[in-house]
């Protein structure tokens, strides 16, 4: 059993998308440690990893279940929320974490690749926000909606055009949703990681190297040079901040997209 923390005062029922690995997985485990029940989502290709995570959460003494869904598909998102409510009893905190990256120059970018990034990173976050908000309004107890933006929502990276635009969109969506749903007691905030050592950055590093003619690892090293705190982030750095956003300590905060990047970009 995890050591009790202040955030255990009010256990909540949470859903985390894109939780089979990386930042989503770390968030799910941290929120379970905080005392919450945690349902986890990912695409069907990651079913086994997701089931393993459910086992780890249950080992902490929390309720957990897996909901396979592609967050860009409205029907699948609705089924995911319905299943989570059936399994856990309610939905109090939604964490729209799932996202994908695509590295290419804007001049060479195919419009279908633009659509693919937008469909997961922006349409997917919108669908998760909207479906969760409808459920929370029905429950009548407010709630917390949290989305994955990025440092690129403040300062885009070259060769990550659609990704940067999608995350900038998440920041705008988060502000609009916070305005519309405050009357229902729902807060909406986003987290903006910098450079986190996950599979996503492995892919970005590899693709940037191919685009720029660099060696493997060179892109990560180049971008990491700008981190004031002198190290690449780990998923747990982001999970600590999401723990705060999911807790009563953040009840007076809404519409914010906060950078948790070790000091690359200052707002
Ligand atoms: P990751 O690629 O390691 O993990 C993302 C997870 O989302 C994967 O398990 C993947 O299967 C899942 N996913 C992808 N498309 C999905 C879909 N349509 N439906 C459901 N699940 C889907 O990425 P990560 O580094 O853990 O990033 C998590 C979030 O944080 C993303 O939104 C990402 O854009 C954002 N972010 C990451 C970084 C970073 O440096 N890694 C920086 C800023 C923001």
From TrEMBL:
Q: Which SUPFAM superfamilies match?
A: NAD(P)-binding Rossmann-fold domains
GO biological processes = fatty acid biosynthetic process
**GO MF terms held by the record:** oxidoreductase activity, acting on the CH-OH group of donors, NAD or NADP as acceptor; quinone binding
Q: Which InterPro entries match?
A: NAD(P)-bd_dom_sf, Sc_DH/Rdtase_CS, SDR_fam
What top-level branch of life does the organism fall under? Bacteria
Pfam families found in the cross-reference section: adh_short
- Similarity comment text for this entry: Belongs to the short-chain dehydrogenases/reductases (SDR) family.
Its taxonomic placement starts with:
Bacteria, Pseudomonadati, Pseudomonadota, Gammaproteobacteria, Oceanospirillales
The transmembrane segments are none
Name of the molecule in the record: SDR family oxidoreductase
């Amino acid at each position: 059993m995890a050591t009790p923390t202040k955030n255990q005062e009010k256990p909540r029922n949470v859903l985390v998308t894109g939780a089979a690995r990386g930042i989503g997985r770390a968030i799910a485990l941290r929120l379970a440690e905080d005392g919450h029940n945690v349902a986890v989502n990912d695409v069907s290709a990651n079913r086994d990893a997701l089931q393993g995570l459910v086992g780890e959460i249950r080992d902490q003494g929390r309720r957990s279940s897996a909901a396979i869904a592609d967050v860009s598909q409205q029907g699948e998102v609705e089924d995911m929320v319905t299943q989570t409510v059936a399994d856990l009893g309610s939905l109090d905190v939604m964490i729209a974490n799932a996202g994908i990256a695509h590295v290419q120059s804007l001049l060479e970018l195919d419009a279908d690749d633009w659509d693919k990034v937008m469909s997961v990173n922006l349409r997917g976050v919108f669908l998760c926000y909207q479906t969760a908000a409808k459920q929370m309004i029905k429950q009548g107890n407010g709630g917390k909606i949290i989305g994955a933006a990025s440092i690129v929502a403040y300062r885009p990276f070259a060769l990550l055009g659609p990704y940067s635009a999608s995350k900038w969109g998440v920041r705008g969506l988060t502000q609009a949703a916070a305005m519309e749903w405050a009357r229902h007691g729902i807060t909406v905030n986003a987290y903006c990681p910098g450079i986190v050592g996950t599979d996503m950055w492995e892919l970005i590093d590899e693709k940037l190297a191919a685009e720029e003619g660099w060696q493997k690892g060179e892109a990560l090293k180049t971008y990491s040079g700008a981190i004031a705190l002198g190290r690449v982030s780990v998923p747990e750095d982001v999970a600590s901040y999401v723990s705060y956003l999911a807790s009563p300590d953040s009840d007076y905060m809404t519409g914010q997209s906060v950078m948790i990047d070790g000091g690359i970009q200052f707002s």
